[in-house]
Amino acid sequence: ILPEIDAIKPAKVDDPPKEDTTAVGSVALERPRIVPEDEVAVAPCKILMDQDEVSVTGDGGSIGLLIGLDDRNADPKKIKAISGSPENIEILFEPEIGVSSERAFFIIRSVSKNLGNYNVTFDTPCGKKKIIVTVR
Prior knowledge:
By secondary structure, this protein is mostly beta strands. 0% of the residues lie in helices and 39% in strands. The protein is built from no helices and ten strands. The protein has strands at residues 23-24, 27-28, 47-48, 53-56, 62-69, 80-83, 89-94, 104-110, 116-124, 127-135. The strands form three sheets. Strands 3-5-8-7 form a four-stranded antiparallel β-sheet, with no helix packed on it. A four-stranded mixed β-sheet has the order 4-10-9-6, with no helix packed on it. A hairpin with a 2-residue loop joins β9 and β10 (127-135). The relative contact order is 0.23.
């Protein structure tokens, strides 16, 4: 005599889907994840600039940097500059300068009398690059 086996109950249409992650072969049985646009992976790119360190004088000294991307499809206007110390270092984007060379032009300026080394990060959807600004 065989042991009794409970009959498998078919799922009703109104039943919520079960979170079954049982693998069949190498494929998991689960609903595909919908990824918001801002989480979509972007191919990495390299931020191109001539210098990794720059120097300015305190209390108003400034320097201009032309920054590009190694990916011709990337938009240099999407480069964001972030000062690690906004009370000491200001960064201005000049959209008209650099357009013809497909680069972005930024002015880094000391806005205090404080001397020292400060970080500035250039951020894009495809990568980041940090430089050191020495205020002397």
